[in-house]
Every structure is written in structure tokens, then in C-alpha cells.
Amino acid sequence: MRTNRPPIEREIDARGLPLEGKLPSGLRGTLYRNGPNPRAGVADHHWFLGPGMIHAISLGEEQCAYRNRWVLPRDERGLGKANTHAIFHAGSIMALEEAHAPVALVPETLARTGATYAPGPFTAHPKHDPLTGELVFFGYAADGAGSRMIRCGALNRSGHRVWETRFSAPFCSMVHDVAVTSRHIALPILPLARQATSGNDASFAFAWHPELGGHLAVLARGACGDAVRWYEAPTVYAFHIVNAWEDRDRLYLDLFVYDAPPLFPGPQERIPFCQNARPCRWSVAHDGHGPVRVEPLHDMVGESGRIDDRIAGSRYSQIYCTSRRHPGAPGFQAVARLDLMHGAIDQFDFGSQAFVSEPVFVPRQHHAGPDDGWLLSLVWRPDFAQSRLVIFDAGHVADGPVASVTLPQRVPDGFHGSFVSDVFLDLERAL
């Protein structure tokens, strides 16, 4: 995807943002959202390649505020992008992208802390274990560009490594996400594979090679890489895994699956854009025999599935995601909730020209039940001079936003983020 999105050069702080509707009582904290910001002076730009910029939208008792900061100074952007995700761990906001180590930022100011975590390739989608507080990570091409080596590990609550191991994959695959349960990790090794490339367009170092087939690696947490189990997987591609869990007999993971990956060249060097991803469930037997079993979850077209992170790694019932409602339109236009128990979808469509970002679930309160909370997403469309933060009641998405905050500028189309409540941040600081 090439785009002429206007770049943001200025770092600004703004308070007293315009608010429509009523900010929900108790929704106090900051949404940290990361994405690749287009480079100034470059009109034709691939979506994945801009340097990272964090956009922090704070929701307070009396006013809403906005702050944006480059993750890396200009003279360090050749060393990494840090442009894909922002999570909170070990007292810092981690800016993440899969080819480099995390960049640690101060939550209040977005200044760099200087802390280092697990040097080397580190996924943009590590998974928090809500029971132990560990952060489970992996990195592909761990021995350098094009290598087949994958490293897996975990950081404790303080950010120290408590486990790390390595194993070799059949080929160098672009492995964007990981499935994590209380006992295992699972990595889809799918045929978006490293190829020889010239020039500086790093995203095209990978191309679709279906002849390589699909594989799923399953490894017990804390185990040596020699114990990895391999399963035959479908020849498809998935950027994002929603959640995983297991019972006595099988391990299950839910993911949004493409027949072939968009935005990357295929066998004829063509680069498709409007491929559609649909949610499905994969499962494998613990005894290590048989291929991956595939079960469709719904016929909707969607991406960027999120859950209530308090139940990550456990059986669950709701996926919150973006939805494509207008065939042929770029991006995603709707915020959606997929009810897995009833096979029903509840969604709100912002129109064919809208660009809607991943919805982030925030529980109404610490002990709230499943689906009892709020969804936060960023939205832009041509009749909006600036981007807006929209807030939904997670149980009633089709009713539309209960509140909308107008940001002081248009935020470029980006990827992922996290909400950190004021109460949670205070507790972490107390510990």
C-alpha cells in the first residue's frame, strides 16, 4: 500500500480537547497508540516503513489531553523503526517493532528511559500472562537477516529475563505474532519468506512463496528449543493472533487469516492490497500427531482482533476488531464485536471513506465481568479535519460512540496500542 498521508513533524502538547458526549465515569488513564509516521518530503510511501511516533491521549476528570513524540531521534531512525505497538511493562511504555529490541519510554512524558530489555529481534506482539505478570516474547531471524533461527523467552514483572531458548524454523518466515497459553507458546511459520532484495524498501525483503507450505511450532514455556513440536498448517497467512487457550487434549488459537498476504509481492511480483482476512480457529492435539484442525468462526472481513487482556491465555467469548464493510475501500471502516458463543456480530460503520484503528478494550472497573467495559479507537474520514478518539460501550457497539474526543491534528494510519489506567499506573509505581 502506497499512501500520501500527511506526515507529522511537530511534537505537541494540547489540553482541553473538545469532547462530544459524556466521558464514562471511571475511564481515567491514557491510550498509547503507535504507528509509522510518513517521512516529510516523501509523497509515495509504503505503509509499514515510517519511523515510529507515539500518540498519547489522556482522559482525566476535568479535561482530555494529547501528546505526540517521535520514538527515536532523527539520527537513530536508521537503527530501527519502533513503529508497531506500545505496551506497558516493568514501569515503562515499550515501543515495539519486530526487527529490534524494545525502546522504553516514560509514561508521563514519552521521553526515553534508557532501560534495555532482551537485546535483539523482539516481536511487536509479546503477550502478558495475567496470572504471573510475565511478558512472553519471541524474535525471528535471530541470527541476522534471513536466518532461520527463532528465539523465545519471557521477562518477569521487573523486566528481567527469566527464560530464553532458540530453535530453527524450516525457512525464514515473517512471523508477526505468537499464541501464548499458561503452558505453551505456538508460532505459525507461514510462507511469507525472506527473499534476496536490492534497494532500501525493507518490507519487500519478504515475498509470498506458497510452495514452502505452512507449519505451526508448539513449545512448552520454559523448555529447551530442542523440544519444539511441529504440525502441518494451512498454506495461508495471518498477521494477528487474537488469543489462545488449551484443554486436556488440544491447544486452540484464534486468528484472522488471509488466503495470501496483502501488501507483499506474490509469485508474479504483484503486490495485492484488498485481500480479505476472516476469523478462524486452529487447534492441535497435545500428542503431537495430525495436522492443524481448522474451524471458521464467522464470514466477516476483519483485522486487528483484541480481547479483554485480563483473560488472555484462557477460553473467552468476545473478539473486538476492525471490520471492512465496504468492498474495495482501503482500510477498515467499522468497529466490531464478534460474539463467539452465538456467532453474532455487533458493529458500527463510520462510512466508506473512514479509516478506523484497532479497538482497545478497557474494563469498566477492575472486577467487571467479561464484555463489561469500553472500546477505544481512533477514527479519521475526509469530513474530519482532525482524527477523533471514539469511545463505545463494549456491550452495545451498534449504538455508536458514547463519547468522542477531537484531537489537535490528523493522526496517520497506524497499528496498535494500549490503555494504561491511572489506578493501574499508581499501583505499579507503588510496587
Could you characterize what this model shows?
The chain is mostly beta strands. The protein is 2% helix and 40% strand. It is built from 1 helix and 34 strands. The strands form 9 sheets. Strands 3, 29, 30, 31, 32 and 33 form a 6-stranded antiparallel β-sheet that branches. The chain has a 5-stranded antiparallel β-sheet with strand order 2-7-6-4-34. The longest helix is centred in the C-terminal third of the chain and has 9 residues. The protein starts with a strand and ends with a helix. The model has no long low-confidence stretch (mean pLDDT 91).
Topology diagram in text:
Blueprint: E1 2-3, E2 13-15, E3 19-21, E4 29-36, E5 45-46, E6 52-59, E7 64-70, E8 85-89, E9 92-96, E10 103-105, E11 127-128, E12 135-139, E13 149-155, E14 161-168, E15 179-180, E16 184-189, E17 192-194, E18 206-208, E19 214-220, E20 229-233, E21 241-246, E22 250-257, E23 278-285, E24 293-296, E25 302-306, E26 318-323, E27 334-339, E28 344-349, E29 355-356, E30 360-363, E31 373-380, E32 388-393, E33 403-406, E34 417-421, H1 422-430
Antiparallel strand pairs: 1-5, 2-7, 3-33, 4-6, 4-34, 6-7, 8-9, 9-10, 11-12, 12-13, 13-14, 15-16, 16-19, 17-18, 19-20, 21-22, 22-23, 23-24, 25-26, 26-27, 27-28, 29-31, 30-31, 31-32, 32-33
